[in-house]
Amino acid sequence: MNDTPGTVSAKDFREGMRALVGNCSVITVGDGDRASGLVVTSAISLSAEPPLLLACVNLTSSSYPLLVEYGRFGWSSLGADHQAVAERFSGFGGVKGAARYEGAEWETAFTGARLLKGAPAAFDCTLEEVIERATHAIVIGRVQAIRSTPGAGALVYWDGKFRALT
């Protein structure tokens, strides 16, 4: 543990953040062979009027340039039965790009973004604003449509592992 103010290492910070419970969501971007996506645990609501969501995305993510280019994205919270989706979108086993969508059912939303069928909540978003800071971008999305599945539970990330809540 580091007790000296102003000298927190990236390793210490990551270990501290693993003690927080984060809801797992998948952000989907792109189309066809240029489709990709990623898992985020930093996704939260920003405003109800207008409906805005906020997520933090690593600038080195392969999905980040597509997010900016397309200007729209799907945001699907993950349910208790979606660990395999979380693993694919986290890149486990080297899964990249459009292959991350395999093994799950998707629907095309109003904007053309893909939403996970059976997600506890899924949001069709247009890109409102991007704020780059240090290693990440704060991505603000304006919600255009919402889908929900009651009783789907939740998938959370805690202590370095995905955990299902029913």
In short:
The chain is mainly β and 166 residues long. The chain has helices at 10-17, 64-70, 83-89; strands spanning 22-23, 25-29, 36-40, 44-48, 51-58, 72-77, 106-108, 114-116, 121-133, 136-148, 154-158, 161-165. It contains three helices and twelve strands, in the order H-E-E-E-E-E-H-E-H-E-E-E-E-E-E.
How would you characterize the overall build of this protein?
Helices cover 13% and strands 44% of the residues. It has 3 helices and 12 strands, in the order H-E-E-E-E-E-H-E-H-E-E-E-E-E-E. The chain starts with 9 loop residues before the first helix and ends with a strand.
Present the secondary structure layout.
Elements: H1 10-17, E1 22-23, E2 25-29, E3 36-40, E4 44-48, E5 51-58, H2 64-70, E6 72-77, H3 83-89, E7 106-108, E8 114-116, E9 121-133, E10 136-148, E11 154-158, E12 161-165
Antiparallel strand pairs: 1-11, 2-3, 2-6, 4-5, 5-10, 6-9, 7-8, 9-10, 11-12
